[in-house]
Amino acid sequence: MADGVGSLAxxxxxxxxxxxxxxxxxxxxxxxxxxxxxxxxxxxxxxxVGKTRLAWRVAAAHREATADEVAFVSLAELREPALLxxxxxxxxxxxxxxxxxxxxxxxxxxxxxxxxxxxxxCEHLVDSCAWFADTVVRACxxxxxxxxxxxxxxxxxxxxxxxxxxxxPEQGDSFERVxxxxxxxxxxxxxxxxxxxxxxxEEDTEPLIRLCRRxxxxxxxxxxxxxxxxxLSLRQLADRLDRxxxxxxxxxxxxPERHETMRALIDWSHDLCTGPERLLWAxxxxxSGSFDLDAAEQVCSGGELPRERVLEVVDxxxxxxxxxxEEYPGGVRYRMLESVREYGVGRLSETGGTAEFRKRHxxxxxxxAGRYATEWLETDQLGWIGRLRRExxxxxxxxxxxxxxxxxxxxxLRMLRDVKEFWIVRGLNTEGRMWxxxxxxxxxxxxxxRAHVLWLSGFLALVQGDLPxxxxxxxxxAAEAETSGDELAAAYVLHVRAYAALIGNDMAxxxxxxxxxxxxxxxxxxEGADLWASYNHGLAVWLDGDMDRGRAVLAEAxxxxxxxxxxxxxxWALWSRAAAEYLQGDLxxxxxxxxQVLRLHERVDDRVVVxxxxxxxxxxxxxxxxxxxxxxxxxxxxxxxxxVGAWPTRYEAFTEPLLADTDVxxxxxxxxxxxxxxxxxxxxxxxxxxxYALEERPPEPRKRAAQLLTKRETEIAHVIAEGLTNQxxxxxxxxxxxxxxxxxxxILTKLGYSxxxxxxxxxxxxxxxx
Length: 770
Description:
The chain folds into six domains: 138 residues, Rossmann fold, CATH 3.40.50; 94 residues, no CATH class; 79 residues, Arc Repressor Mutant, subunit A (Orthogonal Bundle); 196 residues, Tetratricopeptide repeat domain (Serine Threonine Protein Phosphatase 5, Tetratricopeptide repeat, Alpha Horseshoe); 112 residues, no CATH class; 63 residues, Winged helix-like DNA-binding domain superfamily/Winged helix DNA-binding domain (Arc Repressor Mutant, subunit A), CATH 1.10.10.10. The protein is built from 40 helices and seven strands.
């Protein structure tokens, strides 16, 4: 997993840290029961009913009960159906370095995983989500999908749980009874948060009942109304709500529909905003996900909202809970709940301002991309990568805008060129290629940046192993560069071709092409490209037979990166030195370089270089007579390679050495022992594998697995030892047969066993330490 259990996309924190849960005990229990009976459960309901928060609560309860991993993927910010699978893969920590369809990479990586995958806000991507969920649960028997959507996915076997509003009080209920209703408890909780002195007495019973019934028990409506407790008494608040909602029932019988209730409440919140606050609400709806104050000042100011007042207006919208504040190291950002943002989109459209402010949004992020290109090597490199990660959803929206017209597409091509390292560093190969394709198709024939994005697409295709696309894009890039006389683009074409030669083990050609490209990069003052090419050049020169020169080139590349404070290319330069020493040089130096790479990984978070590094360390262990350590490291490396969707044997220089090392290890240990050690290495989480590689802890995967058995799994393991069948276990414990099957699969996987007899033996030994 990219961030371990509870990986996030679109939330700065677990909502349990943002606001406490109120109620939903019955729905949580029912959702968990459905998850035991089906591999796909969808929580449905209107916007504002609390589907996301319930999904978090169900996921937390599931993990506590099963110790399964949980991944939470918010899709509210995603607009491109084609990016659904890459987005999920990115949250899960799976790489994008395969020419195979992304769905195949995800399925292969998840087939042995025990995972609850939460897909939040599926309604605008319902067809894609339905296909994805159906594919995953069919192919991955231990993966369960929990979706939230305003409509069901419509997949065979899907269990649908409509999420009702919170319980509301009845007319005439006593004060004591009213205080136990979920909607009242939520209102009191939120009102107290904004007005700490807020207190209820028996005199408040009638207006409290009236208020909660008016709000239909919708959590978002209750939270928006509770903000007013700071300025209004409870009776004043209820009276004003009565007047606001009377418009809805004027020409109809009965109560308004719940989506109309939500609309009316948001309308009321909008009416209570000042003019500048309404403007900012509408204009800020062009952002996707979160945004910072600088962006708000640049994009949203103008007319009745001067730039110098934006901070004050942001503060007002925070007070009204229209904007939510989220912190990150070194700063603050703002976001809207999706229902609130959608309302703002509608208001902006009514004023005819959508095109203007989407363009201003694009211009701001085009400027940001330009600053990144200028400062990538000049300032805080990791800080810039972190900023672009936070702005990823906004970059997508800006690029989507650029694909609308040839002139805008030229701006988009420039943006892609400016942030080229972002796609490479983050491994967003499929997405990078998609944007190149869309903008290339939209741009005019003479767009000046085309050669630069074509070579980028060719490089991304190369690392994915899509060689026909790689060659096609490089040929196009070379032709465009020649036509336009762009020597720098031509240099990048040479660099990518050199990289292909390096992968193909044609070291003489790689050395020649890298050398020529470096000369051109230096002539044009492109130091980033110079550093990128230099460590590859050093490796090619070394493996082409000139060890001393190769060692000198690599040492200089590392030193230049260190002087600049550069970290990403430095990790690869250190790995290149380690690989060359492993293949032809000093194993002790190779191990020291690998150690430095792994310590840099804590800052860079690049799984691909970790896979390469563990592979080299396994080879070093083999050649220094440590076959057990080599087998464990090989297993750990292969698991990393599996998650990134690639294999080291794609790099021909490593194929024969890796096969030879494997033969040495299996001969030294024997097949059974070698397989056991390999499996133990593959079972380690990546953090544990790195710690083991750094010799900071011993491997204890089987001991750790045993300790991870939940109370229910331990109970079932002991019943297995009695010789009962799965159906007999289900009958004894009063649970579904499918649930028993799933628990036994978990037990076997955690203990590393293949049959029930081994489980019974483990139970016996656990009970008799002697």
